[in-house]
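Hi Y.,

Following your request, here is the sequence exactly as I used it, all 310 residues.
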Amino acid sequence: MQAFLRIILGGIYCMLAASCTTPDTLPLWFDAVEHLPVNSVTVNGQRIAYLDRGAGPAVVLIHGFGGSMWQWEHQQAALAQHFRVITPDLPGSGLSDKPDIAYTPEEMLQFLAGFLDALRIPQAALAGNSMGAGLAIGMALDYPDRVSKLILISGLPPQVMEHLTNPSIKRALTTSTPSWLVSFGNWLFGGLMIDKILKEIVYDHTLLTPAVLERSNRNRQRPGLIKPLMTVGDNLPAWEEHYAPRIKTITHPTLILWGEEDRVFPIKAGKLLHGLILKSTFAGIPRAGHIPQWEQPELVNAQLRSFLLP
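Below is the corresponding structure, written out as tokens. Let me know if you'd prefer a different format.
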């Protein structure tokens, strides 16, 4: 029993020490299928890390819940031939700062608008995956002049909890466990959880190579990651009240892509969004789960180029 308590106390000490560390030094290069330089800009006093590649009309790629810009690694070269491709780590995620804020939809949209301002981009096409699609929807609703076209990939439908079929993510969004205890559990067992969750959101498990799992584990271990993640569930009521009812008012040209094997939001949720957005087109992506742009990049990139090119 005493040995167990020493392990627990040691874990808590390590967890608290990590939570108090200064922000990581930003790496020079992004760990992906390509060697891409990492940029940073200060938005509302916080450092935002991002990739910036190509030239032409701006396309901003927005990752989802618990994700990072690695979810868009296969889009960089394919889209940079025609566009300026900008891929941020959102506040609270990846290499970006993780401030002690509420991460409400309004705050996140202000960050995204401020990010565009900092990069002197008056208008961009926005592509969002999962809950990143929710941010893209919010931008189209609250900052319509900043959005030229809208791309929603496997998210975000109204009545989120009703459409969410993944039990692990549903538990994460509804947990009442204190953040410090979740952080401790992440320190002890996070590697096992990463493997389990990735196998639930990725259809083709052969893609989950040791290198991919190691990269995901490095991202999981970044100081300050857990608390921002835990605010997402708290903010779903605000999404449902202030944004979901207005989805049907979106008038931007919209492309909706959905993994046909999505076990987070099944494809019927994508068809619901398609029915709500007047100027939308819909395509299912075969043999893909919740991040089809990563699992089936050739199919998705062809759809993106066809939609974005004039």
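Residues 2-308 form a domain with the Rossmann fold fold (CATH 3.40.50.1820).

Thanks again,
Q.
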